[in-house]
């Protein structure tokens, strides 16, 4: 389905006295593009340069909208006009099977939703394309002149046709040289001349507005009947002098026609609100207005009482963040105790403890002594069920270290290491391991029984005794008996002699003391000061 006809009308004839290629014979503009036709015989390269001098390029026809533009521009006039298609440099002949037959647009791409080739086979040497009033595309040699060419100009926006009273003539001139009165859209830098009012306006690109708009160098409003005097607000005529006014909260711009908000250019850091004939600065949520009335400073939400968070509060710019203590997790805005086993690195089982967790293992496994979080196969008997599973290679079974797999019964059978003579003297087999023993009087070191020697370097024990298990192996042999030093023997003898003399002296002292006291004996004893007399018996009647 073809789109509705273009709303923009064809521009009139060429200005007399100007060169044929200086101004287009006709032009029409859409909101962002203008198309122009030049009836001047030129080869392809010269035609392309003519479009570029006006700020455009040879026309690309990618849709039926562009096809309709060509039909309006040609006005059923006979002739062939250059299009913006040329054969790719890598090709010497056309390729009819391809949509653009090997050609590409002067913009460097091959995208299109429309083609209208005249029937033809492969053509060599004809590297450019023309279009006729039948709207058919034909290959042509680039160096041969065509009857004219079509140009395309692209813009970021456009000014609307001026609204003037009936009967007032407006003549427009585009930047690429087209002139006329029937344009409905004008590209930037176009000029509008209104002789009856002595007014000349220009389509200016105003970065502050939504797009290009009509203006002039002289500030203030022009007659209100022409595009409302150029006023962004209201145009009012007072005593024949037009004047622009703005809505409440806005003031006139420097050109006397545009309106700007009182907040435009305000020093407010966050927000500006118009208040009567002035403005007030405001801050975003989480901030408060500083003392200077224009800056905003962060509010420490965590400092409020009570605090906004259940456990921990971290203040941020313009807000805050709630966090939980270690061992807790944020769940729907609340801190809930996190089960310790939830993130525990246990390989198999986990037991929760009051202050942590404990890793455990499933039956048939034991905690790896090298890593308390891992489990290894374990069997505490001579036979245990094997751990088996189905694999792509068949049934596979696994056993603990020191066991072999009995595939028939899927059992783990203990290996008797003692049958392999691992021990030097005696051996005791255990599930998955073994123990070496040495005879009494020796100890195990480096899988060998070493005799225990006395101080003379001779074996301290002799004869075979009961076997003693040597696992775990002592870190060193029992200590040897040490010989006493000769000086120590002399000291001991002297001490014994002195002790004997002290005992003799004590006995003599006790004997003398006893002789001085009265006893029931019939003998007297005289002291050393008396004459030497013999002891004589005294009758009992003479005893005191």
If you had to describe this structure to a student in words, what would you say it looks like?
Helices cover about 10% and strands about 30% of the residues. With about 550 residues, the chain is mainly beta. Among the domains are: about 25-155, Roll (Mannose-Binding Protein A, Chain A), CATH 3.10.100; about 300-335, Laminin, CATH 2.10.25; about 420-450. A hairpin with a 2-residue loop joins strand 37 and strand 38 (about 435-440). The chain is elongated, with a radius of gyration of 60 Å. The model is unreliable at about 1-20, about 465-485 and about 515-544 (pLDDT under 50). InterPro entries: C-type_lectin-like, C-type_lectin-like/link_sf, C-type_lectin_domain, CTDL_fold, EGF, EGF-like_Ca-bd_dom, EGF-like_CS, EGF-type_Asp/Asn_hydroxyl_site. It is found in: Membrane. One of its GO terms (cellular component) is membrane.
What's the structural blueprint in terms of helices and strands?
Elements: E1 26-29, E2 33-38, H1 44-53, E3 57-58, H2 64-74, E4 81-87, E5 103-105, E6 128-131, E7 137-140, E8 148-154, E9 159-160, E10 171-173, E11 179-180, E12 185-186, E13 191-194, E14 199-204, E15 213-215, E16 234-238, E17 241-245, E18 250-252, E19 259-261, E20 271-275, E21 278-282, E22 287-289, E23 296-298, E24 312-316, E25 319-323, E26 328-331, E27 334-337, E28 349-353, E29 356-360, E30 365-368, E31 371-377, E32 383-385, E33 387-391, E34 394-398, E35 403-406, E36 411-414, E37 426-430, E38 433-438, E39 442-445, E40 448-451, E41 468-469, H3 486-516
Parallel strand pairs: 4-8
Antiparallel strand pairs: 1-2, 2-8, 3-8, 4-5, 4-6, 6-7, 9-12, 10-11, 10-13, 13-14, 14-15, 16-17, 18-19, 20-21, 22-23, 24-25, 26-27, 28-29, 30-31, 32-36, 33-34, 35-36, 37-38, 38-41, 39-40
